[in-house]
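Internal QA ticket QA-208
Title: Verify multi-chain structure generation after dependency bump
Assignee: T.L.

Test input:
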Amino acid sequence: MQQLAIKREYPEHSRKFRKKAALLSALAMGLGQIYNRQYTKGILMFAVYVYGIFTAVTSLPHALWALATLGETETHLQKVGRLYKQVMGDHSIFLMIEGLITVFIMLVLVWLYIAGIKDAYRTGKLREEGIQPNTFKQTLRFVAAYRFPHIVLAIPMLGIVFFTVMPIIFMILVAFTNFTRDTMPPAHLINWEGLQAFKEILRIKAWSHTFYSVTLWTFIWAFFATITGYFGGFAAALLVQQKGIRFRSFWRTAFILPFAIPMFVSTLILRNIFNGQFGPVNQYLGMLGIAKAPWLSDPLWAKITLILANFWLSFPVSMLMIIGILSTIPKDMYEAADIDGASGFQKTRLITFPMVMFSMAPLIIMQFVGNINNFNIVYLLTNGKPLNGDFQFAGHTDILITWLFKLSMEQGKYNYASVIGIFIFIVLSAFAIWNVRRTKAFKEEEAS
Amino acid sequence: MITGKKAKTSVRLSFSYVALVLLTVFCAYPALWVLMSSFRTGDALFSDTILPASYTFSHYIGLFDKHPFGVWYWNTLKISVSSMILGTILTLLTGYAFSVFRFTGRKNLMSMLLVLGLFPGFMSMIAIYILLNQMNLLNTHTAVVIVYAAGAPLYFLFAKSYFDTIPKSLVEAARIDGAGHMPIFFRIVLPLSTPLIVFTSLMTFTGAFTDFIFAKLVLRSPDKKTLAVGLFDMIGDRFSNEFTMFAAGCVLAAVPVTVLFILMQRFLVEGLTAGADKG
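Actual output:
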């Protein structure tokens, strides 16, 4: 702030400015600023304050009531004169979301309120030091110059708060209710049930069995999907980039094909290619006199097919990245190795591989995390099939995320789905935060 | 000695070429198979030969006769292009703000966004559905575009990593010359970021182009459907067996995106590498 403020010689004032300004701001937002002679800013803030008080009085009690009770009157028939008329009760879900929005807005207002007090205090302090507080124009210029990132981030963050954060909080809340298709509002009211859904999933044997089995398979799947994609890409990159190979760009283009074809198209195609009865793969096997494989109908085969299809889809990305990294490895390292008489394999093992791993390690973990969540391929290729009689609404190849989808969209067990969502979320965030904290992008800045 | 080495090299190369050809077949086969199927007469999946016995264009024509394929196509293009423009702008700005500026809460905000990006999108779909309902946006393309674009900045990390590689001295020099934040961004940083822009645009474009779960939930009436939803319904239905027509639809849907990807290959490598290098 000092950059824009003009220092003037003031007579020694009493040292009361900051206290008074802060107190006035605490009394009502904007008063402190007006006291500091920042009239436009003060009036604007006061207007926000009035709006805030207005919302707090008019909607906060309702919002808190809505969140606490999720509605009290059920939809029922009421006698009006001689006829019975249906009277709509409280819609628990709408109440919950509206309550959430109000609480969000209130939190923002409280934050502004505290920022206002801080600002008044700081400006008061500047005045005590004999510095003229910024005029409104100066403030605007200051904001444009020094608060630029905040302005730039405001719009994306607003979108994220509304379409990502709020829905997530909503879904987390749902895990603590009895929201299922049977209690669908507005016909019924939803109630808070505490940890009931968690207990049921972990304690009731049929559910916990499904939960543990599906979790296990999710991790196995993510592990193999990541490893095959990465090493496949690595091999392809080495193959294309090796010395003396011609038509490099042709090969590269051919290998990018699986990545370039829109995923919903290629997965649906693969589903047909591996069709046990009509699919071409089995036809060719038949022509060669080999028995047909139950690609999608046998549990183990279906899992293998899934990993195979994922390999096909994912190795091009790794290949592209590794080709990029290969070009950054200094040539003289290989020349030095040549002089020492290293074989091609040794060079790959001792130079290329560690260099690529160094750059790729964080990305491999991110891919692993992404594969835990790889909804599309499982849903489009096998849809969790073949069915498993022991599982609750899940098939042999269902991973957590597709099971969650089935539970919510097909079975309407929204509270159970939310419990699983929370579980996935915890696992993933642990991985992600641990990973991100270790990457260069974060570390570099700690030094600077 | 020299001949021995030469022989070794040529053996290695011939093996490599065999591997390359096999891999090419492996990569291209599904695409070729679908292309061939789309020209095959009849509507069955099964065929005795790899190449169709006789060729027909009827499936391509049928797409427009029996299904509103043109409408789907137009809807998809509209949605993808709008989400691409909006989403790319938001992503670039987010990445730029995180790369260039230092402000309190920055790191926490970044970690938070990264974690949010991992959260399965449709977990929150019910809430978004209700939100859209409240805003009277159900069954509109605007809703889909808003949601896609609003989600795009979650994947800001590639953009941030790329901007990190642009020398700070350039920006500082411009600042000394008196350039404001916006002119610096548009005149200096963006022109240096073509690979990143292409990469981000392609990703947001294909994201919107291929998503079908959310589109299926929000877009209810047939005239609002997108390609992904339409094609999925074509064979998702147990009683439909228009496989060859589906194949033709796939070809029409996939060719533009595929060509785009192949043309933009160079930028893809560069955009991906910047991200890989920095994590």
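Spot checks passed. Chain B touches chain A through 99 residues (CB under 8 Å).
Status: verified.
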